[in-house]
Design a protein that fits this description.
alpha+beta; Alpha-Beta Plaits; five-stranded antiparallel β-sheet; elongated; 2 domains; Aminopeptidase; binds glyoxylic acid; binds manganese (II) ion; 35% helix
Length: 412
C-alpha cells in the first residue's frame, strides 16, 4: 500500500484545535473537564462524526470512534489525549488523536477497508494536572481504577471529577473497563531532546519510565519574621524548600535517568514578614528502572522525615500517582522501526520520559508508540513545536503500522 496522509489537513486541524483555550502566546490551556476541554472535545467529536465514525463515550468520558473492517473483531486502536496542562502547547496529545483521525480519513478517501475494525480514541485527563493521577481515563479504561473511585477524585480547584464530567456532558454510558483492542499504537511528540540531538526523525518507543507523584504538607507555626530567632522557628516554608533541594540532590546522586521535580509549592500565609506556618508541595520522581525508583522513593521519604524533625514541623503525605515502568510489545516496537526505515527515516529506539495513555493500554493489548522530534526538547510550554515535515513523517508511519496490524488475521 502506497498511501500517504494529507499533511495540510492534519496541520490545519492541529491549529484549529490549538485555538480552543488559546493562551495568546502560541499555546493553549485545556485542563481536564473544564469548559475549554469540553469545547475541544466537541470540535474533535464533530470531525469524527463528519467522517461517519461510530462515536461512543464511556463512563469516564473517554471517546472512542470506530470504523468497521471487512470482518468483525477487536479493532486496531490509536489515539491519545486532548486535555493539556495550563501552559500547554498544541501538539502534546492532540497530535496522536488528530493523526489517528487523519489515518482513518486517508483510508476512507482511498476506499481502503482493512480486515479489522479501526478506532481512534481520546482519553480523559491524561495530564493529571487538575485531577491526579495522570493517564486517568486510560487507567480506568484498562481496569486499573474503578470508575466510582475516579468520580470521587477532587481537583486542585476543589471540584469533584464525577460532577465535572456530567457538567460538560461527557458522562457516557459505555462501561469501563472498555473494549479490548487487537493492538494500540500512539503517535506523540517526544517532549525531550534526544531525536533532535541525533538528527533522527522517528522514535520507536520501547516503554515508559515509572512515575511516582506525592503531595507533602508541612505544618509549622506562623510567627513574626523579624523577632523569631532561627532556632525557635517551625518554618513550614523552609521545610518545603529543603525538600526541593533534597530532591535535586538525590536525583544527582542516583544519576540519569533518575529525575526529581518539585513543580508545585504553596506557602501560607504567603506574606513577606511572616514565617510560613503551612506549606504544600508536590514531588515527582521518575526512573526507567523500577527498583531504582523504589529506592528513590524510600530515600526521599527518609529525607522528608529528617527535614520535618529538624525543623519541628508536622508532615503529612498523599500519594497522587504511582505507576511502574512499562515495556512496550517487542513486535510493535519492531514494526514501528521497520516501517520508519522503509520510509527512509533515521530511527532510534528510546524509552519515554513522559507518561502516556499507551502505557495503560499496554495492560490490555500489544501496544507501542511512535515519537517525532520536539524542537529544543521543549514541552508543557507554549513554545512546544514539531516541524510540519516531522508531523507528516510520524503520521505516515502511524498509517502504515496501523494498516499492517489491521490486516492481521482474526482468529475467533
Ligand atoms: C503526563 O503526561 C506526564 O508525563 O506528566
Ligand atoms: Mn501527552
Ligand atoms: Mn503532557
Amino acid at each position: 500500500m502506497d498511501l500517504r496522509i494529507d499533511a495540510a489537513r492534519l496541520l490545519s486541524r492541529l491549529e484549529e484545535l490549538g485555538r480552543v483555550g488559546a493562551t495568546g502566546d502560541g499555546g493553549c490551556a485545556r485542563l481536564a473537564l473544564t469548559d475549554e476541554d469540553r469545547q475541544g472535545r466537541d470540535l474533535v467529536v464533530t470531525w469524527m462524526r463528519d467522517l461517519g465514525l461510530d462515536v461512543q463515550v464511556d463512563a469516564i468520558g473517554n471517546v472512542v470512534a470506530l470504523r468497521d473492517g471487512r470482518e468483525p473483531g477487536p479493532p486496531v486502536m490509536c489515539g491519545s489525549h486532548i486535555d493539556t496542562v495550563a501552559t500547554g502547547g498544541i501538539y502534546d496529545g492532540n497530535l496522536g488523536v488528530l493523526a489517528g483521525l487523519e489515518v482513518l480519513e486517508t483510508l476512507a478517501s482511498a476506499g481502503v477497508v482493512p480486515r479489522r475494525p479501526m478506532a481512534v480514541a481520546f482519553f480523559t485527563d491524561e495530564e493529571g494536572s487538575r485531577f491526579a493521577p495522570d493517564m486517568l481515563g486510560s487507567l480506568v479504561y484498562a481496569g486499573g481504577m474503578p470508575v466510582e473511585e475516579a468520580y470521587d477524585l477532587v481537583g486542585i480547584d476543589g471540584a469533584r471529577l464525577g460532577d465535572e464530567l456530567a457538567r460538560i456532558g461527557y458522562l457516557g454510558s459505555l462501561p469501563c473497563p472498555g473494549l479490548v483492542p487487537h493492538a494500540y499504537v500512539e503517535l506523540h511528540i517526544e517532549q525531550g531532546p534526544v531525536l533532535e540531538h541525533h538528527d533522527e526523525v522517528i522514535g520507536a518507543v520501547t516503554g515508559v519510565q515509572g512515575i511516582s507523584w506525592q503531595e507533602v504538607r508541612f505544618g509549622g507555626q506562623f510567627n513574626h519574621a523579624g523577632t523569631t530567632p532561627l532556632a525557635l522557628r517551625h518554618d513550614a516554608g523552609f521545610a518545603a524548600a529543603s525538600v526541593a533541594v533534597a530532591a535535586r540532590a538525590l536525583a544527582r546522586e542516583l544519576g540519569p535517568p533518575q529525575v526529581a521535580t518539585v513543580g508545585k509549592l504553596d506557602l501560607r500565609p504567603g506574606l513577606v514578614n511572616v514565617v510560613s506556618g503551612r506549606s504544600t508541595l508536590t514531588v515527582d520522581l521518575r526512573n526507567t528502572e523500577g527498583d531504582v525508583l523504589a529506592d528513590a522513593e524510600r530515600r526521599m521519604a527518609e529525607e522528608i522525615d529528617r527535614i520535618a524533625s529538624e525543623e519541628g514541623v508536622t508532615v503529612e503525605r498523599r500519594q497522587l500517582a504511582r505507576f511502574d515502568p512499562v515495556q512496550f510489545d517487542d513486535r510493535i516496537v519492531g514494526l514501528v522501526e521497520e516501517t520508519a526505515h522503509g520510509h527512509g527515516h533515521a530511527v532510534r529506539r528510546l524509552p519515554s520520559g513522559a507518561g502516556h495513555d499507551a502505557q495503560m493500554l499496554a495492560r490490555l493489548c500489544p501496544s507501542g508508540m511512535v515519537f517525532v522530534p520536539s524542537v529544543g526538547g521543549i514541552s508543557h510550554n507554549p513554545a512546544e513545536f514539531t516541524s510540519p515535515g516531522h508531523v507528516e513523517a510520524g503520521a505516515n508511519v502511524l498509517l502504515h503500522v496501523l494498516h499492517r496490524l489491521a490486516e492481521e488475521e482474526i482468529v475467533s
